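Q: Convert this sequence to structure tokens.
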Amino acid sequence: MRRTQDLNVRQQSPVRVTGTVASIVLSILILDQFTKWWALQNLGDGGCAEDGACIDLFWTLRLHLIFNPGASFGTGESLGPVIGVVSFLMAGFMIWLATRTKGPSGQNVWLPRVIYASIAGGALGNGLDRLFRADDGFMTGKVVDFIDFQWWPVFNVADMAIVLAVLGAIARSIFAEDPKPASSDPILPDQQAER
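A:
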């Protein structure tokens, strides 16, 4: 059993961990930017009354192109540059956490790495919009949003990655198992009284 745990720890080399984290971040970033490019090419900017401006999919879900200068729910329109800088700082911090997350010998820590890397990918996706779509100065670009339930603010793939990662972190903290004692020997009532 000990040999298996040692093998698991050895297999999680820094290069392998960094490659896994980078793969997750880049996958989210590429998917986000590709879907935004598609939305810009195929959806008209404006109200859904115009031809080609919206594509109805099912239920209340439709594709509807908008540009968000601020934070979620239409707040903080003048804070776009600050939000852009914070998104890059957050992405860097999440990548750092993802590559440094370690568990006790033999414990699988893939879920926290996926959570941190997903937040980083989403933050970078929206940060790149603010950086490269800027007209009026540094980080003044608007984020491209196009997924519209009509009863929730319009969002994009980067937003989905962040929200799903946060929900995963909440679920993990709720359903996490209690940590096991470091030794496999049970503590007897006599030993507990001595402590």
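The helical segments are 2-11, 14-42, 80-100, 110-132, 157-175, 189-194.
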